Amino acid sequence: MKTILVTGGAGFIGSAVVRQFINDTDSRVVNVDKLTYAGNLQSLASVASSPRYAFEQVDICEAAEVARVFREHQPDAVMHLAAESHVDRSITGPAAFIQTNIVGTCVLLEAARTYWNSLDGDKKAGFRFHHISTDEVYGSLGDSGFFTEQTRYEPNSPYSASKASSDHLVRAWHHTYGFPVVTTNCSNNYGPYHFPEKLIPLMILNACNGKPLPIYGKGDNIRDWLYVDDHARALRLVLEKGKLGETYNIGGWNEKTNLEVVDAICAILDELRPQGAPHASLKTYVQDRPGHDKRYAIDASKIERDLGWKPQETFETGLRKTVEWYLSNDDWVQGVSSGEYQNWIQNQYGS
Ligand code: NAD
Ligand code: DAU
């Protein structure tokens, strides 16, 4: 049985990864998460009682604590998802992004390298550090073209600059120390358990509550959407079969303007909640995000060709599942919206 150390396992994508490992494999998972505003243990309620799941409330910037976790749990692999992830927050307060995304990644790399150096035999040969990153490191596309693994890094926001820095650290640890790494750069995820500061869950919940749907600028910026469970499956595949030192772009060939996304959500809600129709009448154009990247689009040929990955959901099937999930998981939504889950964490862990 393998032990996978997942950082950020209480977040949106991390929790999907943890749920898949517990439900679909015989691996043990150690979830290392500081539980910032974005970390929510309620997202792991369905797997938390598994004997193969362990939780460590640890800040990845705390070197001694991170080293203790490696010593105590002796992982076979690390999947590093912990990060500050919201672009708008990085614009108003970049410091936390520099701290967690850059300093935290460096602390984690050093703890993992020290631990790896202490291993021998198959355990050492099989160890790998999987860094989970974003397509935003590549900057912004014009009307045509795609991000490939060869695209030059041109990060434009404090968030993407901090993620680009972390990618470079990971690359350097491989080049300099021979540390066994693999990096993935994924497009925009959506799906259940997504914190409602991000476009899709914010629009679903605002529309349900009759609140304005704030569209930045003209709503013509383009994002490339991938259902979160498809991303989690891709991550597990890359961890298992990816070539050390390589990067893999992950995306579902699903480019949409923000207006198309919002209109699609409104159309599903008109059908499922006709009493609020037409939800599109709530669309409100607001001031644009500073430095707003125009278009992202991932060329996913490499992971498809080399590892045989394909997404299972189309945007239409995934979006409908997502809207239905938010409509039928009011407890989670209320907990997140009211901050109740932070109290719950305090009761559970006394911190
Ligand atoms: P999220 O904000 O939902 O979750 C981040 C998690 O990291 C939270 O549980 C939080 O508590 C934890 N965390 C934050 N700072 C920490 C620290 N110092 N120590 C320990 N834990 C800490 O983020 P997400 O959307 O799930 O993204 C996960 C990863 O995937 C990030 O690295 C992000 O850059 C990357 N990514 C996200 C997307 C996307 O569309 N959401 C796309 C591509 C890549
Ligand atoms: O591309 C991958 C990235 O996708 C990840 O690395 C980030 O962690 C993740 O947050 C996401 O970043 P975006 O900035 O693309 O996602 P967000 O949901 O914040 O915004 C999506 C688009 O919608 C973007 O063009 C801005 C726009 N938007 C967003 C919000 C929150 C609006 O028009 N209105 C809004 O209220």
Structure description:
The structure is a single chain. The chain has one domain: NAD(P)-binding Rossmann-like Domain (Rossmann fold, 3-Layer(aba) Sandwich), CATH 3.40.50.720. Strand 1, helix 1 and strand 2 (28-32) form a beta-alpha-beta unit. With 351 residues, the protein is of the alpha/beta class. The mean pLDDT is 96. Helix 4 packs parallel to helix 6, helix 7 packs parallel to helix 9 and helix 9 (258-272) packs across helix 11. It is globular and about 65 Å long. It is 45% helix and 16% strand. The protein has a 7-stranded parallel β-sheet, sandwiched between helices. A 3-stranded mixed β-sheet has the order 7-9-11. Strands 8-12 form a two-stranded parallel ribbon. The longest helix has 23 residues, at 95-117. It contains 13 helices and 12 strands. The protein starts with a strand and ends with a helix. It binds nicotinamide-adenine-dinucleotide and 2'deoxy-thymidine-5'-diphospho-alpha-D-glucose (DAU). 2'deoxy-thymidine-5'-diphospho-alpha-D-glucose binds next to helix 7 and strand 8.
Compact overview of the structure:
This protein is an alpha/beta fold and 351 residues long. It has helices at residues 12-24, 63-73, 87-92, 95-117, 121-126, 158-177, 199-208, 228-241, 258-272, 301-307, 315-328, 330-338, 340-349, and strands spanning 3-7, 28-32, 53-56, 77-80, 128-134, 181-186, 188-190, 213-216, 222-227, 247-250, 255-257, 283-286.
Features:
351 residues; alpha/beta; Rossmann fold; seven-stranded parallel sheet; globular; binds nicotinamide-adenine-dinucleotide; binds 2'deoxy-thymidine-5'-diphospho-alpha-D-glucose
